[in-house]
Specification:
This protein is an alpha+beta fold. It has a domain of about 140 residues: Glucose Permease (Domain IIA). The strands form three sheets. Strands 1, 4, 6, 7, 8, 9, 11 and 12 form an eight-stranded antiparallel beta sheet that branches. The protein has a two-stranded antiparallel ribbon with strand order 2-3. A two-stranded antiparallel sheet has the order 5-10.
């Protein structure tokens, strides 16, 4: 009886050991997925590496039962939206944006050429009633009073320029000393004289047109006419000098209406007449 019970106990132990060995050798594991509670397939213990893939929207939850050994390791689960096996999302392709050409912030304008001023025509001289005009005297054969190169200087040489105690009553014709001074129109010599502090050696003429001419600063000893002498247009009067109150050689020329230094007489601007008579190149 004792032996029979002992044998039965040994048989039961053997059966328990056999069942335990069988369970561990097969490596059966049950896994419930996170999405549906389904059973996952058993992992094979003999394999080198065991893997598990996510379903698509969540992480896979797996349970592996290993009795030891080198196999049966579960693969890491992915997170996010399931776009990558190991949670690394593929880089998105770069989109190259074409930049539109930039417009300049301001328009560059070319500078406009400054128009050149138009030359003004000479203002015609206006003569008083009964006074011959420059054009009339030129038509009668008037000549320029200096034979040679000359100029009219600047503002200080003009008619009406200021002087100490008086105004300039004539027009200066700048020229080299010694050039011949002639009568522009025919007439009669009124006077010749010398004024140390003013006109120097001078002569005055009354012309056939009724105008009176005055020639001043003549070179000393050059007077070629005398009082009361009749002269013709172009006849020599004297030579250009700088006697009296003068700072350089020139002819001081005056034109009078109503008589030179006479009561009621007065000087007018000689420049329009001189310009009308000027036919010498370089003048």
């Amino acid at each position: 009886m004792r032996h029979a019970c002992k044998a039965a106990a040994q048989a039961t132990t053997a059966m328990l050991l056999s069942a335990t060995f069988a369970a561990s050798s097969t490596g059966v594991a049950l896994a419930i997925s996170s999405t549906g509670g389904t059973l996952a397939p058993p992992a094979v213990a003999a394999g080198p590496v065991g893997t598990a893939r996510s379903g698509g929207t969540g992480a896979a939850a797996s349970t592996a039962a290993n009795t030891g050994g080198s196999g049966g390791a579960a693969a890491p689960s992915t997170k996010g939206t399931g776009g990558s096996e190991y949670g690394v999302l593929a880089p998105k392709p770069k989109v190259t944006r074409k930049l539109a050409p930039r417009k300049p912030s301001h328009t560059v304008r070319r500078p406009r050429a400054t128009p050149k001023p138009k030359a003004k025509p000479p203002t015609p001289a206006v003569s008083e009633a009964g006074v011959p005009s420059p054009a009339q005297t030129a038509g009668e054969g008037a000549v320029f009073p200096v034979l040679g190169l000359h100029s009219f200087g600047d503002a200080a040489n003009r008619f009406g320029a200021g002087r100490v105690g008086h105004i300039h009553e004539g027009q200066d014709v700048l020229a080299s000393e010694g050039l011949t001074v002639v009568a522009p129109l025919a007439g009669t010599i009124i006077t010749t004289a010398y004024q140390a502090g003013g006109a120097g050696w001078y002569a005055a003429e009354h012309t056939v047109d009724g105008l009176d001419f005055f020639y001043a600063h003549c070179q000393a000893g050059s007077l070629a006419v005398s009082t009361g002498q009749a002269v013709s247009a172009g006849q020599a009067i004297c030579q250009v000098g700088q006697t009296g109150d003068a700072t350089g050689p020139h002819l001081h020329f005056e034109v009078w209406v109503g008589g030179w230094q006479a009561a009621g007489g007065y000087p007018i601007d000689p420049l329009p007449y001189l310009e009308e008579w000027d036919h010498v190149p370089g003048g």
